[in-house]
């Protein structure tokens, strides 16, 4: 009895020591691998549909040495987990969901690893290509882990499907969700142009996690007719499409941040019609009706607003 | 007590010292060694499925279905499928294949196929259709080839009364601009519409279709992954466009045209018309990438070639307006019919090409330090033949060359160091350069049919027959960033960031701009199950050497003063102070309930700008709630409020900015404030009414946007060369109506699995959208000087019923 009590107290003290800051501990012994590959884990996790769906995915291909199941099986991602195999009350080395319990962590469930630990597991294989600029990126510095967006234990990850991807991004980016409902919008909710068509959420050297290095180069992927170069260029257009447009959605037509003539009059106020104040009396049907308050406003005449290649197009009219 | 049972007791005791959440997990500890080993994989549910059916749409849906190709009412087929297979996970095989199709009954259908051996090679191909329906009631005096619906010169245009552009104001009668008796200006846009014009116009649907074909091949060669992609896009259809013929719409000249502020050449009256621009684009893109990766080093080398081809070069519009007869010199003069055969060529986007080479490099110096470098060098080229400056056979405007031969070099470079020199401290340093070097030729061009062959330094290149010089814009942005993040507590992190930027521009009003941005952010646990973040950012941007009118002066070769009011700076290059606050609060008391509140405010002030854009701010806030009400019922709701505000001012100069000693007119300072308020709401309920048998989903979305305008005026001031004004006059401006948009969308969808792998899908949706914009709903023939498209504000109310079947196999 005394032996059992002493061992119990010892185990409790050891458990408490595990919660101290890392600096106060002696270097931890790496956890031992359970061995036996996926078969060991499937002894228990063979009926949970949320677990076995991974067997239908590229992560579970034993014949591919790059795949987790071609290496250490489940422990490739969940870490050496002999303790968990020995007793279910011990979590796997790495868990991917649940509140954080340092130092050990889990991907999902009641115990979860820190974002850094969870991400580190994925970066073992996925640090190249689109993820090269992950470290130091906006998502990484905001403690977003890979499985905060990705779902691994599922036949098809919803974030890799165009129609369901935006919903995942909208869980944090509520402003962009609201924009997608506006009158003028890219077909995001319609599943035709989605977040990853313009952004690389894994990190990018360009602004706002864009796929290309600049805003304009991203836009030219689908709007190559604007690329030019053109004979008569409109300076704000060449520099940044966002000088006049907002990409996610706008209450104004054609994704404009503001409508003509007021948008144009933020830069153009030369004496004459450019500086004219246009108001209610200039609307169609009013006494001072002005064509610049109808249809596309200034762009009625200056329709080549993105630039013109016509010798006669210095004022973007041809 | 046996050893096994005592170990169980010990473990149970130690569990008491773990966090409470762990206790919930530990209620059923056991010895995994008791369970027999699994020798075969558990049976997988059927992964292939096909969905077929149909839906009925009760009305036209210009807004809601503009991207599906189902704008028109009627029946549509439903068709989705997934077919696929791969070697069993434990067989040692790596082969896989899949075929997916979505929306096969719509123009927005998509199709993807993949095949390969995982870890060795892979091929994929896809088709994606993106339709866009803009309008079904577009009116034009031209058909798609530019032929006029009415004989040339048959549309009479109106003149100013007395032929004076800006008459002197000799009487001051408030409310100004609303009293027709003293407003000869008002007569400009009130020509008598032609009685036969309305019936003659062409009526067309404006719609576009993108067909995108993509093929990708991938090969794994050791640690190298070689990827090649070919993407071909064909875009066709029609989109709304417009062109003016003759000059500034509605002006009739009487003067000699000595300066731009006098009326243009005598007899020149111009017209405006909308046309359905034909679109026939082909864009091909080729990418080749080689990526290497191991635990420490990652490299990616890529080449991209993009070729945009416009299969149409110009839209040649036959002139329907009565511009006047030609004089001996080949210019229009006087009133009269326009000679037949005169056309107005409109240049369509020229074909262009682009090349880009990319090199990306990442190296883990040690587990806590990483270096990244990204470089890209590109060329953009365009050398399409110019279209004619005019369709007037008698005119021969001076052109220095027959095509542009444009060339732009782009360079992008970025290096970054990310390191954790000590636990809890993260550092990041980066430098970025982004350069556009426009090496295109710069020449002087005749932009007016009356232009001669020489530069007219004292004239206006647009109005008085001078030449304009094209300006090949170049710029260079450099950015230096330093960031430090320190984790004070496991759940509390503080981050400081300083970013310094410089911008150099040529041919610009502000050639050198610098800015410095400081950002502070904290993320922490505020309480039990409550997490929050707060960040504040301040930017100071300085336009160090602003030269008002520099661009215009260079373009006109030192021509006329641009008449821009004092301290009117173009906002995108002006000095600016930017402040931004962001905050989030996350509360998740249980695994079943998650709530988030978001707040964002950003404000821009332009301190040097006394005119132009002065101030704008963006504000957004709202909650998001996800709740697993029960194991079979989940709910999600959100609300977002957004406000966008712009404030700008200017000086209405009716006769120049004091540079014309003999001009008469007035100056009126004015302001415009635009406020956008948008409310967005969404509710979703998912109910597993009968587990694995019946599932019902309900969804409601609401969006309301309101753009309001507040326009203000100042007292008319007298100055410069104005001599005729003796008293000041106040403008009384009529307010603009708000621009509103409202969307209501409700849908109910059910899935009933009436037998294994057979599921009946049924659904109903109601969609209501209305948009009220004062710039729409203009009759095409209300003003003969300007033939408007006549497009109406969208106003949709649509019921959609759908029924389908999904079969799994």
- Large-scale geometry of chain B: globular
Mean pLDDT of chain A: 82
Largest interchain contact: A-B, 149 and 225 residues
What share of residues are in beta strands of chain A? Answer: under 5%
Span from first to last CA of chain B?
54 Å
Which class best fits the helix and strand makeup of chain B?
Answer: mainly beta
Query: Low-confidence parts of chain B, pLDDT < 50 over ≥5 residues?
Result: 1-34, 159-190, 249-268, 325-337, 455-459, 656-664, 715-730
* Rg estimate of chain B, integer Å: 34 Å
Order of helices and strands of chain A: HHHHHHHHHHHHH
Quote the average pLDDT of chain B: 81
What's the overall geometry of chain A? elongated
Descriptive account of the structure:
The complex is a heterodimer of chains A (318) and B (809). Chain A is an all-alpha fold and 318 residues long. Chain B contains 4 helices and 33 strands. In chain B, a hairpin with a 2-residue loop joins β14 and β15. Chain B is globular and about 80 Å long. Chains A and B meet through α1, α2, α10 and α13 of A and α1, α2, β7, β8 and β9 of B.
Question: What are its keywords?
Answer:
heterodimer, A: 318 residues, mainly alpha, disordered N terminus, B: 809 residues, mainly beta, 26-stranded antiparallel β-barrel, two-stranded antiparallel ribbon, 4 helices, 33 strands, 4% helix, globular
